[in-house]
Amino acid sequence: MKSLWISFKILWKYHKGSLSLLMFLKILMGLLPIAGIWLAQQLVNEIVTLKKGADLSGFFFLFTLQVLVLLFSFILQQLNQIKDRKLEYSFRLTIKKRIFDKIQRLPYITFEDPRFFNQFQRLNSGQSKILLMIREGMNFTKGIITLSGVLLLLITINWWLIPI
After folding, report:
1. Distance CA 57, CA 4 (A)
2. Dihedral angle of Cα 96, 116, 4, 78, to the nearest 10 degrees
3. 24 exposed, middle or buried (CB, 10 Å; 0-12, 13-18, 19+)?
4. Which of 35, 102, 123, 152 has the highest local Cβ count within 10 Å?
């Protein structure tokens, strides 16, 4: 958990706007399944209460909303992937630039030291781990939001109204 916090601080230091947008997208993506389930529930309730020759405008409205939620969910996933890749490339570029700025100030004899070379290789390969931890942390948060919302929705259903 500590390494997740450190990774978050490093990423926040250099890319506040992109990280904020990515977090907002993940929260929205966590809420959309709840909206989809609620709309499906309302759609089923509308179908059950329909009578022959009744007005179908409520049904079509809910159905259209359901399709729009699914479409919006797809668009958010695509936008999330694009922003995630852009953040990844931008972060890697920033870190590499900072590493090479520091390396330029070192004496040439340092480059012959195998310990320095090993640390340099670990620095170059460790960037993806920072992003992976942030990505997995946001996905975990998205899952918690979805799970708690679905549980809350299930608790609020009037179960005694359902015929057995």
Report:
1. 49
2. 30
3. exposed
4. 35
